[in-house]
Design a protein that fits this description.
heterodimer; A: 351 residues; Rossmann fold; 2 domains; 12 helices; globular; B: 336 residues; ABC transporter involved in vitamin B12 uptake, BtuC; 1% strand
Chain lengths: 351, 336
């Protein structure tokens, strides 16, 4: 009994130590720009009371960036951008979110940030409606809130920095028409069903192809998981010899090794076409390997950078010169076999 | 006072449990594993008819087999835990953590394929052993203990990688996931080897009998001299090891180790065991059952893709088919 008690005490002590370490350690292990975060939370409380137009000391300001989930690699570029902006401005940055892409978990995270009285929140919403209320509450509490990558347009957020998802879906459809001049069938791969940004891309793609000689097949999902995406694509491609093209609404399959996608390799060699959204660093190599025709990328690093710098201006009470509808279009980049090496050189390598 | 003799033998109906003479056929046909095999066969027939030769092509067949082999390996591990009457929710997290640790061993510590495999396997065993300790020494309910380690393993995996996937794995390591042995994908060969070894241990060794004994009646087993705590420590460590093997095989298959892998996969593995005939209360189960259960789920998923069923409806269809299949099997068992 005594031994059990001491073992229990040891476990509790270790758990507390782990928890303390997790809370105070910087979020990443790759030595990116130093981020002083929760250590300065006390100072952030003072800054948060400053809701008037007077300028606060930069080092007192804390902006929390909340991606859809911490387990989606596509946000790593926006983290890099956000950290760069924080370093340039001399402010504190917190990279925080739910472990999984779950709207209600994300709401809980925001509620925690409201309690902590951060100065600003930059969030990519898992669901536009589910996040609306908590965004409004944060704004009412004097916290400046903006969205990036995935918007909540009905909320009180100050601005949205991101891709026009409908437009890149339509852009992909335009390129698909060029790749399939004689028409054909296109399979669509998506991620988590119902995610507003993904749904907009699918809608943009399908609506642009309406009435054309290209048929869109029912949507397949990899649920934002790389392994599931690879299996679905491989199986569907192998089973449908008359398939003409694939449209990947997100580039999940291209996070894996080229050797894990033999069916795509064969598919393209037999004349199949593939257009994929996202131009993250590991994906660009596929252009050189002839395993994708066109990558349409979102400027994730730009989203993080512009999001943080514009939000900082808002916190400081500066006059914001925002475009129409308070939407900052961070644009898209189109990468093909002709320019992929040049684009690769300009990107920050992963590890 | 009557001293109850615990049932230390594998339960009636375990496939391959050869009795005397003509009773064999009756036993095989009557076993729940046979029922599951029938369900699988029926599914395959339906899919062959509805998809033409798409389902039955050797390429698709092997692809599906390889796809569910990872779940099946994990299911074999947790099957032993379920037979003892326990549960292990940390599987998916240990799966990811082990993949990540083996990736780190190869990519950062330059330990080579063997080093990667050793570090990954050790990671799984450690978490499994920790589960066993919490359950036996601290008397924590298995659900709670493994719920805790589920979070810890996932959290540590996220923490040490910062969310970045680990690529550039060793060629030899990747063979386990991407290679072929005599025309058969390596993960399938791995599954078969692990299944044979585990089945042998379960049915032919004293440890195996003790595992069933603990699940059948823990107190009676303890009173009969079975070292219940040691049996439990073993099964949880084994479950962790199987999860780590599945995790490393998946990382090998994709060529990248991710801290996000295997999310929710423990539910697939546990479902495979239950569909395959194991009982949540313990004492019942064999190794073929989880493999058939994983096969049913894998074939179903494949069928939904081949039939181009829209992703939005896939989960509903999957759930409905599983309920129908298991209900049919329960009704068949009740008739006996």
């Amino acid at each position: 009994m005594k031994r059990s008690k001491s073992v229990l005490a040891l476990i509790v002590a270790v758990s507390m130590a782990l928890g303390l370490a997790a809370c105070t350690m910087p979020g990443d292990s790759d030595g990116a720009a130093a981020t002083e975060n929760t250590g300065d939370a006390a100072n952030a409380t003072d800054a948060a009371d400053n809701t008037e137009a007077s300028v606060s000391d930069a080092s007192d300001i804390t902006i929390a960036v909340v991606p859809k989930s911490l387990d989606n690699s596509i946000f790593l570029d926006s983290k890099t951008g956000a950290e760069k902006a924080a370093k340039d401005l001399g402010i504190n940055l917190e990279w925080v979110g739910s472990a999984k892409s779950d709207a209600s978990e994300q709401v809980t995270v925001i509620e925690g940030l409201i309690q902590k009285k951060v100065d600003g929140i930059l969030i990519s919403c898992n669901d536009a409606d589910a996040l609306k209320d908590v965004i409004d509450r944060a704004m009412d509490a004097g916290i400046s809130v903006a969205t990036f990558d995935s918007d909540s347009p009905e909320s009180k957020r100050i601005f949205y920095a991101g891709t026009d998802n409908y437009a890149i879906g339509a852009e992909a459809a335009g390129y698909m028409k060029e790749l399939l001049p004689d028409g054909g069938s296109v399979a669509i791969l998506t991620g988590v069903l119902g995610a507003p940004n993904l749904e907009m891309r699918i809608t943009g793609f399908q609506e642009t192809l309406e009435g054309s000689n290209i048929e869109c097949l029912p949507v397949m999902t990899g649920e934002d998981d790389v392994q599931k995406s690879v299996e679905v694509v491989n199986q569907f491609t192998a089973a449908n010899s008359d398939l003409d093209a694939w449209f990947f609404v997100g580039g999940w399959p291209y996070f894996a090794d080229p050797e894990a996608l033999p069916e795509i390799n064969t598919f393209m060699k037999n004349g199949g076409r593939v257009i994929s959204i996202d131009t993250a660093y590991p994906m660009l190599q596929y252009l050189g390997l002839d395993m994708v025709d066109i990558l349409i990328g979102q400027a994730y690093e730009e989203m993080g950078y512009i999001g943080v710098t514009t939000l900082y201006d808002a916190i400081q009470g500066k006059e914001l010169d925002l475009p129409e509808d308070n939407y900052i279009n961070t644009g898209s980049e189109v990468v093909t076999k002709d320019n992929w090496e040049e684009i690769l050189a300009g990107k920050t390598p992963w590890e | 006072m009557k001293k109850e003799k615990p049932n230390t033998l594998p339960p009636e109906g375990a496939l391959g449990d050869v009795g005397k003479g003509g009773g064999v056929r009756k036993r095989i046909v009557g076993s729940s594993t046979f029922g599951v095999a029938i369900i699988l066969l029926a599914l395959c027939i339906i899919l062959t008819i509805t998809t033409g030769d798409k389902f039955l092509s050797s390429e698709n067949f092997l692809s599906v087999f390889r796809q569910f082999s990872f779940t099946a390996i994990m299911a074999i591990g947790v099957c032993l835990v379920i037979i003892t009457g326990g549960i292990d929710l940390s599987l998916g997290s240990v799966y990811a953590f082990s993949g990540v640790m083996s990736g780190i061993a190869m990519h950062w510590w330059n330990l080579g394929t063997a080093g990667g495999l050793a570090v990954g396997a050790l990671s799984g065993i450690c978490f499994g052993f920790a589960n066993g300790l919490f359950i036996t020494k601290l008397q924590l309910p298995p659900f709670i203990a493994t719920l805790g380690t589920m979070s810890i393993a996932r959290g540590v995996a996220h923490g040490i990688t910062g969310g970045y996937p680990i690529s550039k794995l060793e060629r030899g390591f990747k063979f386990i996931g991407q290679g072929y042995i005599a025309g058969i994908p390596a993960p399938i060969v791995l599954l078969v080897i692990l299944a044979v070894i585990t089945s042998f241990c379960l049915r032919k060794t004293i440890l195996g009998r003790h595992i069933y004994a603990v699940g059948g009646n823990e107190e009676a087993a303890r009173v009969s001299g079975v070292r219940v705590d040691r049996v439990k420590l073993f099964v949880y460590a084994f479950s962790g090891l199987m999860a780590s093997i599945a995790g490393m095989a998946t990382a090998a298959r994709l060529g990248v180790a991710q801290s996000t892998a295997g999310d929710g996969m423990e539910m697939d593995a546990i479902a495979a065991c239950i569909i395959g005939g194991a009982s949540v209360t313990g004492g019942v189960g064999n190794i073929l059952g989880p493999i058939l259960g994983a096969a049913i789920m894998g074939v179903l998923k494949n069928g939904l893709v081949l039939l181009s069923i829209s992703a939005y409806w896939q989960k509903a269809v999957m759930g409905a088919v599983i309920i129908i299949a298991v209900t049919a099997d329960c009704m068949r068992n009740r008739k006996k």
